[in-house]
């Protein structure tokens, strides 16, 4: 039976190449064309509006820093949901990562803080696995409970550990930890300066490409490099190994996987614990790279946004990376006081909505096309009638982008078939 399990995959849903029933898998050249098209659109917006920060190296560098914790949280969600466990508790596991990462980071060194953050997230993942896999608790209820428990735990122990003794003397308080040392950042010498000189000329498209690449090679944290490696490792393990095949079979058809000798409980446990570790690493990134301290509430819902990025990416690492980059870009705009930049992007939103309206009308979806056209007209009026956007709207940009992206992509998604379903050993007999 074991030999059969290693060679025979469990039954899977038939692949659909296109149309309403599925989503066409994008090849690498197509992805490059999409990226180039998006960059052309941003370049046109920058040229028309004069909002030079839209594609500047500073904006791209900030977007990358904001995308990493979102992407790691989404990567954690991907591991869990590919094994059939919905992980709404990513936010709580990130909170544990921020707390334990900062707690260990200021006392020892930031890399031990990273390890502590990962372990903290894994403990949250273990708790979620015990509740959902062993005891069959509803996945959503368990995840929400973990979020509440993590917030209460860190609030209590922050007052206990950061507000007394040496911690208080070094800048700790009931709501924040003492600062930790920096994690090394790297810059490619020569290339960074050359790209910056091209960016300053503000040439159409050329300077925008220079700004984007410059942001990716200037002051990049080594932990960002680790995160990029984890995306590649996740793809290889889940899609190119027998271990990954068995794990994904648990999320598609656990009864069939069990009949082939797969220990479904074990694979679910492994996936959810890894999921918590990824989310904890994202939290540690926030407290050790982004701000160098633990701050109460510093995750800011990024665990939920990571889950949205995973859904946008159709439960695959490549799509997740694109989604995390988009949300990180929006997050960076509001952190850099980007009222002018957000206002400029309203013009891009008009074009996207107008194109969507035309496509829906072409496909004879008249109601959706009409709604998109009306919204596009309203946004255009808003853009023409104002010079900037209110600060409150800028702060809400990441969450608005999350809602827009999910609403536009919801009809082309395919989640694992057994995702979120309660499984009991032997239920197929």
Radius of gyration: 23 Å
Residue stretches low in confidence (pLDDT < 50, at least 5 long) are: 1-23
H/E element order: HHHHHHHEHHEHHHHHHHHHH
Number of strands: 2
C-alpha geometry: globular
Short description:
With 429 residues, the chain is mainly α.
Describe the structure.
With 429 residues, this protein is mainly alpha-helical. Helix content is 70%, strand content 1%. It has 19 helices and two strands. The chain has helices at 2-7, 28-49, 57-82, 90-107, 110-134, 139-161, 165-169, 191-199, 206-217, 222-240, 242-252, 254-259, 264-290, 302-312, 317-335, 339-362, 366-385, 391-395, 397-409; strands at 185-186, 220-221. Strands 1-2 form a two-stranded antiparallel ribbon. The longest helix is centred in the middle third of the chain and has 27 residues, at 264-290. It is globular. The protein starts with a helix and ends in a 20-residue tail after the last helix. 46% of the residues are buried.
């Amino acid at each position: 039976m074991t030999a059969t399990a290693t060679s025979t995959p469990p039954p899977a849903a038939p692949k659909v190449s296109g149309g309403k029933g599925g989503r066409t898998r994008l090849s690498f050249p197509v992805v490059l064309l999409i990226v180039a098209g998006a960059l052309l659109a941003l370049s046109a917006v920058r040229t028309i509006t004069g909002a030079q920060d839209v594609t500047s190296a500073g904006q791209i560098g900030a977007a990358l820093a904001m995308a990493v914790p979102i992407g790691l949280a989404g990567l954690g969600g991907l591991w869990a949901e590919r094994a059939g466990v919905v992980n709404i508790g990513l936010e709580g596991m990130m909170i544990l990562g921020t707390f334990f990462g900062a707690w260990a980071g200021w006392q020892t060194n930031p890399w031990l803080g990273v390890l502590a953050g990962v372990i903290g997230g894994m403990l949250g993942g273990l708790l979620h696995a015990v509740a959902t896999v062993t005891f069959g608790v509803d996945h959503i209820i368990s995840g929400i409970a973990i979020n509440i428990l993590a917030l209460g735990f860190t609030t209590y122990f922050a007052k206990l550990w950061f507000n007394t003794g040496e911690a208080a003397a070094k800048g700790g308080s009931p709501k924040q930890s003492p600062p930790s040392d920096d994690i090394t950042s790297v810059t490619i010498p020569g290339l960074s300066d050359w790209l910056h000189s091209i960016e300053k000329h503000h040439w159409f498209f050329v300077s925008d490409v220079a700004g984007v690449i410059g942001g990716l090679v200037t002051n990049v944290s080594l932990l960002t490099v680790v995160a990029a490696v984890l995306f590649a490792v996740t793809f290889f393990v889940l899609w190119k190994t027998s271990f990954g095949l068995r794990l994904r079979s648990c999320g598609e058809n656990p009864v069939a996987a069990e009949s082939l000798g797969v220990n479904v409980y074990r694979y679910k446990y492994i996936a959810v614990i890894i999921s918590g570790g990824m989310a904890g690493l994202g939290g540690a990134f926030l407290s050790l790279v982004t701000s160098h301290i633990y701050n109460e509430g510093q995750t800011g819902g990024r665990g939920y946004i990571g889950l949205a990025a995973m859904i946008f990416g159709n439960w695959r690492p490549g799509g997740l990376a694109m989604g995390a980059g988009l949300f990180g870009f929006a997050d960076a705009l509001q952190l850099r006081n980007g009222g002018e930049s957000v206002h400029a992007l309203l013009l891009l939103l008009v074009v996207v909505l107008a194109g969507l309206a035309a496509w829906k009308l072409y496909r004879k979806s008249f109601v959706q096309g009409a709604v998109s056209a009306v919204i596009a007209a309203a946004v255009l009026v808003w853009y023409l009638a104002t010079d900037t956007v209110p600060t409150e709207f800028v702060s809400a940009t990441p969450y608005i982008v999350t809602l827009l992206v999910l609403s536009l992509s919801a009809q082309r998604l395919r989640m694992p078939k057994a995702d979120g379903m309660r499984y009991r050993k032997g239920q197929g007999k």
